[in-house]
Amino acid sequence: MKIPATVITGFLGAGKTTLIRHLLGNANGTRMALIINEFGDLGIDREMITGCGIEGCDDANVVELANGCICCTVADDFLPTMEALLDRPDPPDHIVIEASGLALPKPLVKAFNWPEVRSRVTVDGVVAVIDAPAVLAGLFADDAQAVESEREADPMLDHDKPLAEVFEDQLLCADMVLLNKSDLLDGDELDSVRADLNGAVQPGVRVVATKFGAIDPRVVLGIGARVEDHIDARPSHHDGDDDHDHDDFESFIVELSAVSDPETLGDRIVQAAEAFDVLRIKGFVEVAGKDMRHVVQAVGPRVERYYDRPWGLDEARRSALVVIGETGLDRAAIKRTLLG
User: What is the mean pLDDT of the chain?
Assistant: First the structure.
């Protein structure tokens, strides 16, 4: 019997890690293996999972692949990782793969047709997590005329739209779409987001509203789609590309000293996002006089901060932020803004 695997995709900051934490915390005895792939040089998402305090959630159950898009490194990293999980004395009951927010799910699903894993694993479903308030704000437009109008109004937009293409490809490959952060919208706004997505998802795809990634695991695990058997039928902007990569995006790390005022740092993050079109900033910082590690996550100008756990006795209290954006970021100016 094949082991089911669920691919969780979605744009930066949509809530994929929060969803996975919820799934792990409500596994009810199911042995889950988690593969995390993230864009950036710090293992932020992996640390958020392993530091969550959920029983059974340890380094042996969390595997982090090398930096970069998972679909670009399947030959070197993904397949050996899968084989290592499958060859364990106690193989998992279910495999959950958190794809990078910049990854296209279709090439990843195609990797499941490799002989090494096809006979042992099936892609149970692709779940796309969507930031509902962001979609409502029109950050990704499916209306070609609207996009063309923007291009005509602003010559700086006269180029490909990699962000929109990634977003649309994730929707087109999905078996289920979660409209996360739905608590931030009223009923009419949520209906508007659903209407906007109608033309971007395949017929029969369920669209479910969630908040904080909370959903019964039985809804998202056990879809039974066998996606690898018909992945070629799912359209993509990048069909026919022989060499797909993500040179449209870049990331770098900003090292900081201990922070005396996290709120001031949050204000600087907002300034950097608004002034330099930063997509995402995430990391851990040391707050002066505090024994707890401080987590920072930002999607554009929307910033979330909280203390997650005490610093370890032998742990270096490093303060560092990963900055992610489209290629061409003004790294020096962003660094100056963040450091103040």
Answer: 79
pLDDT tens-place string over residues 263-274? 999 999 999 988
Q: DSSP labels for 155-190?
A: GGG-S--HHHHHHHHHHHT-SEEEEETGGGS-HHHH
Q: Domain count of the chain?
A: 2
Q: Does 241 map to a domain?
A: no
Cα 277 to Cα 271: distance, rounded to the nearest angstrom: 10
Domain of residue 264, residue span? 249-339
Helix or strand run (H / E) with residue 128: strand 121-131
Per-residue CA distances from 21 to 16, 27, 32, 152, 333 (Å): 9, 10, 12, 43, 35
What does the block give as tokens for 22? 């919820």
Same domain for 108 and 210?
yes
- Tens of pLDDT, residues 201-228: 888 888 899 998 889 888 899 888 999 8
d(CA 310, CA 249): 33
pTM reported for the whole predicted model: 0.70
Query: Six-digit token pair at 59?
Result: 């380094």
